[in-house]
Amino acid sequence: MSEVAGVDTEIKNSVCEQMRFSVSRTSLLNTLSKVSGVVERRNAIDVLACINIKAQHGSIKLMATDLDISMFASLAATVLTEGEVKISAHTLHDIVKKLPADLDVNFEVNNQRKLLMSCGNANFSLPNVVSSSFPALEEDNYKHDFILLNTDLIDLLTKTKFAVSLDDTRYNLNGIYLHTDEQFLYCVATDGHRLSCIKRPKPGNINGEFGLIIPRKTVMELLKILDDCNEINVKLSDRKIKFTCGEYILISKLIDGAFPNYKAVIPASQDKHMIIESKKLSDVIDRVSVVVSDKVKSIKFSLQEKLLTLHSNSQECSDATESIEVDYNEAPIEIGFNSRYLLDALSCIKNKCKFSLADGNSATIITDEDDSSVLYVVMPMRT
C-alpha cells in the first residue's frame, strides 16, 4: 500500500457504525469541489456515484473514482469516532455548498447506517451505499519520477487543452501529448483543424525520454488542484500517470494509442508576417463574428500594408466589417478562419502576437512575441 501526503491510495473495508466527526464547512467545500468532479453524474454502478469518506487519526480522507481516474484528498477534522462511509458525491457537494460558510459541519453514522449531517439549524440524513469494497486504481510500476513547478504545469496544460479533440472516434487525439526530447518537455494537442504546442526546459530529474497521452478529463480535474502547492510530483508508467500535489493525489489511466507526427503539419516556410496586440485583435474578432449564428463562426482576414480588415456574414444576410492597424509590410492576402480557433489561441497570449502566413490555402502559425516556446497552428477555411 502506498501512502503519500497522508492519503492511502488503497481503500480497505472498515466498520462505519457510530462514526462521528466535524469539519470546517469552508475547507470541506473546497475539497469536495475538487474531488467530486471525478464522479460522473450518471452511473450504472451505485458505488461509482459515491465519495468514500474515511475518518481516522484527526483527519478525513476522501476518495472518488470513475475507474479511469482516482482522486484522493486529506482534510483536517475533529474525529470523535473513526469509521468509513460511502455517500453520493454530488448530493453531498450540493448540500455543503448551501450551508452557512462560517460554521462546522457535523457528521455521524447512526444505527441504521445512515449518515446524519448537521450545520447550525440544518439537518440532513443520507443513505450510506453498502458495498463490499470501494474500487480504486492500483499503483503501478512507475518508470519515471520527477518534480514540476505548479506554474510550469499550469502553463503547459492551459495553453494546450483547448485544442484537444472532442471527437471520441479519434481517441488518440482525446488528450494532451506529454513528451520529452534531449532538451525540452512538451505538451501538444490537436483536433485535426488546429494545433497547440508549448515547451519548457526539461527538468534535470527526468531521466531518458518518454511520450504519453493524458486524457482530457484528467487534465481538467488536475488543473483544479494545482494551486494547492508549489511543486508537483509526477510519476509515469506505460499505463498510468500519478500526480501528488499537497494533500491531493490523482492517478489516471493513459490513452492507449499513438499520437500523430504533429511536427509534419507545422509549416516550414511562411514568408508573410503580421504583428498586433492580442487583446486588440481578439476584441475585433469577437465583435465581427457576433452576427454569425452558424455553428462554425467563420471570419475572413483581408491583409494589406499596415491594415487588416475583418469581414463576416451569416445565412440570415447579416454581415459585419471592421478594420484595424497592424504591423504588416508584405503582399496583400485573403484568408478565412474559424473565429473560435483564433480566440482560443489569442486568449493564451497576453501582449503581442505574430501571424505567419504563406497564402490563403495554407496553415497559419500564431506565436507569442514574448514567449518563443509557444506555438499555435490554425488551418484555413472557406468563407
From TrEMBL:
Domain called DNA polymerase III beta sliding clamp central: residue spans: 152-261
Domain DNA polymerase III beta sliding clamp C-terminal positions: 264-382
Record carries keyword Lipoprotein: no
SMART domains linked: POL3Bc
Locations listed in the record: Cytoplasm
Pfam family, one: DNA_pol3_beta_2
GO molecular function: 3'-5' exonuclease activity; DNA binding; DNA-directed DNA polymerase activity
Gene Ontology CC terms, in alphabetical order: cytoplasm; DNA polymerase III complex
Domain DNA polymerase III beta sliding clamp N-terminal: 19-137
GO biological-process terms attached to the record: DNA strand elongation involved in DNA replication
Record key words, sorted: Cytoplasm, DNA replication, DNA-binding, DNA-directed DNA polymerase, Nucleotidyltransferase, Transferase
Primary location group: cytoplasm
Function according to Swiss-Prot or TrEMBL: Confers DNA tethering and processivity to DNA polymerases and other proteins. Acts as a clamp, forming a ring around DNA (a reaction catalyzed by the clamp-loading complex) which diffuses in an ATP-independent manner freely and bidirectionally along dsDNA. Initially characterized for its ability to contact the catalytic subunit of DNA polymerase III (Pol III), a complex, multichain enzyme responsible for most of the replicative synthesis in bacteria; Pol III exhibits 3'-5' exonuclease proofreading activity.
Subunit organization: Forms a ring-shaped head-to-tail homodimer around DNA.
UniProt similarity note: Belongs to the beta sliding clamp family.
Name of the protein in its database record: Beta sliding clamp
Species this protein is from: Wolbachia pipientis
Lineage per the UniProt record: Bacteria, Pseudomonadati, Pseudomonadota, Alphaproteobacteria, Rickettsiales
